[in-house]
What does this fold into?
Amino acid sequence: MTNFHGHPTRRLVTDYLTLDYLIDAGPRLVRLSLKGSDINLLGEAPDVGWETPGGYYHLLGGHRLWASPEEPGVTYAPDDSGLSVREIPEGVELLWEPKTGEGGLAKFIRIEPETDRAALRFIHRITNRFSYPVTYAPWAITVLPLGGTAYLPCPPAGEDFQPDRALVLWPYVRWNDSRLGLHEAGLTVKAEAAMPPIKIGAFSASGWTAYERDGILLFKCFEPLVGEYSDKGCNVEIYCSDKLLELETLAPAMYMRPGQATEFSEIWEIHTGEAVQEILAEFE
It folds into this structure.
């Protein structure tokens, strides 16, 4: 059994990569490495956290599942305990349930490594454990280390006279932040340590977002679903502070009666060498 800053973990191993996940908290995927490398492609944030209505929330880092819209009492529900792990032939399933009687959203991540390439398939699910209907969306957030560049493709849809794209900024963002890059193909954020933080978002019909650092590209694919989104219509968001960068994807919000659930899937691919330049060529 491996360990992540005091939390016990287990490991999935393929011919191409290794993935560590917590077995006592989360769900949280905390280490991702190419075979033969000890470099963690995910960001580590063991000292980051904050007080919430339900207690102290430990970010920890790695990949997590939240619920949108961002509401402290629900989104930040502390998840240091209450996780169950189920190993399956395809991979592993991680399920966190709120404490009995308190209500909340159950969080589920199914991890399926692909056997013929450096790739992983994820199913994210939130389930309404309140005693009344609620409307939320799965919000998949990946913490990444500083030193690279995040990509949000948002090319023009055509040559019509009607607007077809929008850039969403959070209140603390400065228009002249040097980390923000505007390109014909979309937006980039350099993962440089600076304050105040920067957070941008957009609706991307391209179905992917990515992070490149030291010649390694983490490429996140998803289906750009039609529906009502939080945060002024964003399905991709990028956040960067002086400690970390977050690459975030969202599904449309779903009205859920007690016991109902909504899902959102991603496929992660890890690329190196010429494949990185080919994928990012449209941003040059």
Notes: The first strand starts at residue 2 and ends at 4. The mean pLDDT is 96. The chain is about 5% helix and 50% strand.
